Amino acid sequence: MTGPDTDERHDGRARAAAWFGELRDRIVAAFEALERSHDRGPLSDAAPGRFELTETSRTSDDGSDAGGGLMSVMRGGRVFEKVGVNVSEVYGTLGERAQAAMAARKGIPGMAADPRFWASGISLVAHMQNPHVPAVHMNTRMFWTPHAWWFGGGADLNPCLEYAADTAHFHDTLRAHLDPHGAAHYPRLKAWADEYFFIPHRGRARGVGGIFLDDHNTGDWEADFALVRDIGQAFLPAFVPLVEARRATPFGAADRDAQLIHRGLYAEYNLVYDRGTKFGLETGHDPNAVLMSLPPLAKWV
């Protein structure tokens, strides 16, 4: 994809959107299977959770259709207290503030003359019932204008009660999926995540890190898409074994208190610093879908 005359059939947008939907289906199925298989320990006697599906929409400034998506949310399950797995495909024209932010950060020429855009992605946040099971975030996305395209995404682990073995497994799995694309990717994207998911006003990270990628365009669309697919492919093998290992661990009131306080950190970060939250609200996407990442309960000391 090289310029404004690029045809959608050839620029990869349809392929990217289809992949994000396929990944969403895999994750939803895996999470509902975890709910059904939780047969011992806390909350195992409750009914297994199921995802509720809601179509989301975006309306442009002139009232015309501008795309939307599918919000999949499970609340009050055996394993997941709240988890959302959203996919979206939105398009239209960028407003002046969004144009300025994009051009300043990405150095895109010609945006003021032709501010059309298209974006698609998957976004996931899971807040767990058991404080011994870490919360987690993952997203991958593609953004297109007539002047440029790029990919982004990543995953990070957010335990309130940290286990070194869990952190090592999560990072090792991410590295294993990135290394086939080049040994330099994992250390670079890990360092990027450490910087991106830092909470300046608290002077600490929101979790134990992961990987983060943005503005990614090497000029080779196929290679870039393959990298982003493998970031998505890494998620289930990185996270599901941690859930299976910790979901039956007994916990008490002090553990729950630590979990709710840690969720306060997560809420602060997403509301104050997260680029995806800002972009979603700035471009008029469904606010319930944009704010799906917020925990169901949190507390501050």
Spell out the blueprint of helices and strands.
Layout: H1 8-11, H2 13-37, E1 52-59, E2 65-75, E3 80-93, H3 96-106, E4 116-128, E5 135-145, E6 148-158, H4 164-178, H5 185-196, E7 198-199, E8 204-205, E9 209-216, H6 221-246, H7 253-272, H8 275-282, H9 287-290
Antiparallel strand pairs: 1-2, 2-3, 3-4, 4-5, 5-6, 6-9, 7-8
| Percentage of β-strand residues | 25-35%
Major sheet characteristics: 7 strands, antiparallel
- Using only C-alpha atoms, the radius of gyration works out to 19 Å
How many E strands?
9
Number of helices: 9
> How would you describe the oligomerization state of the chains in this entry?
single chain
Give the helix level as a range of percent.
40-55%
Side by side, the strands of the main sheet go 1-2-3-4-5-6-9
Order of helices and strands: HHEEEHEEEHHEEEHHHH
Q: Unreliable runs, pLDDT <50, ≥5 residues?
A: 1-6
Average per-residue pLDDT, rounded, comes to 89
**Helix-strand category:** alpha+beta
End-to-end Cα distance, whole Å, is 50 Å
Overall shape? globular
